[in-house]
Write a structure and sequence with these properties.
The complex is a heterodimer of chains A (189) and B (181).
Chain A lengths: L15 H17 L5 H5 L8 E2 L4 E2 L5 E6 L11 E5 L2 H8 L10 H6 L4 E3 L2 H21 L10 E6 L5 H13 L4 E8 L2
Parallel strand pairs in A: 1-7, 3-6, 6-7
Antiparallel strand pairs in A: 3-4, 4-5
Chain B lengths: L34 H17 L6 E6 L14 E6 L5 E5 L5 E3 L1 H14 L5 E6 L5 H24 L8 E5 L2 H6 L4
Parallel strand pairs in B: 2-5, 5-6
Antiparallel strand pairs in B: 2-3, 3-4
The chains are: A alpha/beta (189), B alpha/beta (181).
Chain lengths: 189, 181
């Protein structure tokens, strides 16, 4: 008599709820994921931001000019101001502004795709005032009120930096009559 | 496993009547193997989870006085906070002698002084150039936290809070005042 072959019965799990949730999470993370911008790519330094507790607003993603002050990884005792504007088309017009031509030489311009490195406070001042005027000129071309946005300024400095660097940047703001600006911080968890 | 499934009933056949002799065909649900789909989905999910950064940087409002001629203020209305090179904090109101204060106490002190003077008090922050930026932000944070309490307290008295605050450069005279303390 031939042996009766027992049929193995594999069990089946209903994966539908699992897939539902996974897709939900996947779409959530896909939409929230933000990839490195050009400015971050060019950035050769890392900024350790100071932490704050008070409720503050989030750093806007556009219409913001950021002055970064970081500790240089190659020369720790030295630093510079890194100036960048979040809106690409505005950034192009700022770089081509004739009042910057004096010191923003073609090779220096080439090196600064997304941010301009400067140690001179006068250069920073010119950058601030040029960005302001260019942003205003840009606003005139926009039709709807929603498109018009005032350029905001923010100082994003490393927490280990001496206050002198920030005080100098603030003085540059004051001299260019940009009395309102922001400090970029991280929220304390 | 991944059978195409049984598509019940043909398309073109005439509809069965009420009194059809034919046995109703049992519908067979079809099953798709979801394992590869789940594999890929999990892979993408983990990728996006690692890549994403949920903490976006915050901003703290700051203002500097415009470059005009100096404004005369009564010294009695000044609440001065000085930060020495070594990070020690000193405060004084009006013409008092500067007192050392620790960061944690600064908030309660700022709340008390401000509420005593209602909206009159002007906070002046003077920071030595060699102080770390972190210390400065910590002090500003404490003052911002104090501001919430002050605004609440003043609102209870039906008053609108007008914040008077400025950062001004530290002069040699300031340094001299807090030198030996």
């Amino acid at each position: 008599m031939p042996k009766v072959k027992m049929k193995r019965t594999g069990f089946v799990i209903d994966m539908t709820p699992l897939v539902d949730i996974t897709f939900l999470l996947l779409t959530f993370f896909m939409f929230t994921a933000k990839f490195k911008s050009e400015a971050d790519n060019e950035q050769k330094f890392q900024i350790k931001r100071p932490k704050t507790q008070a409720d503050t607003a989030k750093l806007p993603e556009k219409d913001v000019a950021v002055i970064r002050i970081a500790i240089d990884s190659t020369r720790p005792s030295d630093t510079a101001y890194y100036f960048s504007v979040a809106n690409p088309e505005l950034w192009m017009t700022i770089k081509d502004d004739p009042s910057l031509a004096e010191w923003l030489t073609p090779d220096r311009k080439e090196a600064s795709k997304a941010m301009i490195k400067t140690v001179k406070i006068e250069e920073l001042e010119t950058l601030i005032s040029v960005s302001r005027t260019q942003s205003k000129a840009f606003n005139i071309t926009k039709k709807t009120a929603a498109e018009k946005a005032q350029l905001r300024f923010a100082i994003d400095a490393d927490k280990r930096i001496r206050f002198k660097w920030i005080a100098d940047a603030m003085e540059a703001m004051r001299r260019t009559r940009q009395t309102q600006f922001n400090f970029v911080t991280d929220k304390q968890q | 496993m991944a059978g195409g499934g049984e598509l019940g009933g043909g398309g073109g056949r005439p509809k069965r009547g009420k009194h059809s002799k034919r046995k109703p065909k049992k519908r067979l649900g079809f099953r798709i193997d979801m394992t590869p789909l789940v594999d890929i989905t999990f892979l993408l999910l983990t990728f996006f989870m690692f890549v994403t950064t949920l903490t976006t940087p915050q901003v703290m409002d700051m203002a500097v006085p415009p470059e005009t001629e100096d404004v005369e203020v009564a010294e009695s209305k000044l609440f001065t906070v000085r930060v020495r090179e070594d990070g020690k904090i000193f405060y004084n109101q009006a013409k008092d002698i500067p007192q050392p204060i620790i960061l944690k106490e600064l908030r309660t002190k700022a709340i008390k002084s401000n509420l005593d003077m209602k909206n009159e008090l002007i906070t002046v922050l003077k920071i030595d150039e060699n102080v770390a930026y972190e210390t400065v932000v910590n002090i500003l944070d404490e003052l911002n936290l104090a501001e919430i309490k002050i605004t609440q307290a003043l609102q209870a008295e039906k008053l609108n809070r007008e914040r008077k605050f400025t950062i001004s450069p530290m002069t040699d005279k300031d340094k001299e005042e807090i030198k030996g303390l």
